[in-house]
Amino acid sequence: MLNTNENHKNKMNAEVDPSFSVENQLSDADVAHYVVDLLDDHAQHLTAVTAKRLLVARNLAVSRLADSQAVQSSGHTLVWFGGQLERHRTMSTAITLGAILLAFYAAQQFGLNANLEEGDAFLLASDLPPEAYADKGFDTWLVSKSD
Amino acid sequence: MVSFKKRLKLNSLIYLGLLLSGLFFNNLALAEDVNLTWVQLSNEQRQVLNTLASEWDTLRPWQREKMLDIARDYPKMNPSKQELVQKRLGNWSRMTPYERENARKKHQQFQSLSAEKKNELRKKWMEYRGLSEVERAKLRGESPDTYTDADLN
Amino acid sequence: MATAKELSDFLTAVERRAFKQTTYAVRDDHAALDIVQDAMMKLATKYADKPVEEFPMLFQRILQNTMRDYWRRQKVRNLWTTLLSSFGGSAETGDERDPLETIDVEDDSDQPHAQLERSQTIQLIELAIQKLPARQREAFVLRYWEDMDVAETAKIMGCSDGSVKTHCSRAVHALALTLKKQGLDKLGISSSMPMNKGLKS
After folding, report:
1. Which residues of B touch A126 (CB under 8 A)?
2. Is the pLDDT of residue C54 over 90?
3. Cβ of A41 under 8 Å from any chain C Cβ?
4. How far is CA B102 from CA A130, B93, B105, B135, in A?
5. Does the structure's ipTM exceed the value 0.85?
6. Based on CB atoms within 10 Å of each CB, which residue in A97, B115, C51, C64 is the most buried?
7. Coil, strand, or helix at residue A15?
8. How far off is chain A from B39, nearest CA to CA, in Å?
9. CA–CA dist B36, B52 (Å, integer)
10. Chain A partners of B70 at a C-beta cutoff of 8 Å?
């Protein structure tokens, strides 16, 4: 679906706030349109460093896509590797089992540690009451005080 | 003969399954308690969570779980900390899940501050409390990250 | 399934404004670059099987989510450790600065008058965009800059159509106020008004 400027403006005009008088003032749609044109224009003028980094990021992503699509189309490598492992079936099962047990143990430990530090009880018993942590007015006030 | 891919998938699933059940297992005992009504909780649990007696049965399981965590950690604390927990539990339970989640994150950051800065923050909080409710409401409204009811939909 | 070329073309068209949009939200060029990079990679790895027509919406959603993750992690630490160090005078937090200080101010000493006006306007607009409440900015960017319709915007933002309209309206009014201060609220404004550009790429 192509978005021509007509459609674009019509979409926005449909939401114009009727309480905004059009006579001498720009309508909502005009304001939005003007601002976006400015922003779009400005976005084209990035520093060379930034533009380069975006390019690099883009190329990385694209080559990752290209690689994954190449692998999917050829299963040869995997079949060969699978053949190798088939021969050492007992070994691979033993390793897997060992890994599972290790993970189980680690999970127990991890679960315990997480609880020790993060329970709400510690929050409630801390130097500040819970309201202090939740109050966004407090943050705003701190910011204003630091000016 | 099972293909390598299928075997790998199967192994990974078993692995994952056991890892997850390992994590759940740790909290199994607790998980059972969330379905208990107030009268079914232990004496110890009811003592700690006394403030919530009247509303316990109306709380959702995930809310109760958090409260039961508090009851579990409570005995590890000294009396002055226990007193704080008792004092603040009511307010805590009345906060929204969103507020509580924010508070948890803030608390994590608070814990990483030095003793000096924690003290400072405490003083600032007392100062802030000195402002009128009208002023504080205004400050909350000015926060760029304040989500009003309309925003949350 | 999208091809590598389709992904490349899409990202080329969208990367600059995606970067700018992110800087308005996180107020940090380095972080913005990381976020956009992350988003590109996520699109390429997790949604490679989607048709390219879905990319605009997908990418915006990924971007918003990545930004939100960053914001949730960063804002708490930045506020309390930064603010407190400015009270106490200690330099522990080193190069963490007031987020508003990271806005780049263009050097406009060489520009002719009309261009100078324009660059001042854009600086004010950028400042105004950054000061908008997050939800209002999101709605504005998605509706008017990314050209999504109300339903698409609502889907990305996870809110109702009505909320989208409210947020947009408020955002536009805030921006109109900024323009008004520049004396740009009258029709037939100065030569700094850009020409209609036709189709958006």
Report:
1. 84, 107, 110-111
2. yes
3. yes
4. 10, 14, 5, 22
5. no
6. C64
7. coil
8. 22
9. 14
10. 119-121, 124
